[in-house]
């Protein structure tokens, strides 16, 4: 049982407004917060790695070493983050994280090949 922020009378935990005074309860209850889904950046990160690999692979122009080093760093960070996410995420998200790791490895291999 929670209490109204305005009149102090008892109200149900998930009540958006007070049934006594009509005051809007701005603070969400724990059960309301648990129902929200979290934002997942794995698809966007995977797409970035794949597109960067394709552009780097198909580019006929020379690529400067700073760009190669940047992409190698991004790929390394992606691999580490992907491994961490596979360890801590739910089972339904593991496949997406494994694809992200593979895309990061693809970017790393492509950047290393272009840098040689």
TrEMBL record:
Domain of life, per lineage: Bacteria
Keywords: Membrane, Transmembrane, Transmembrane helix
TM helices/strands, residue ranges: 39-58, 70-88, 95-113
The protein's name: Uncharacterized protein
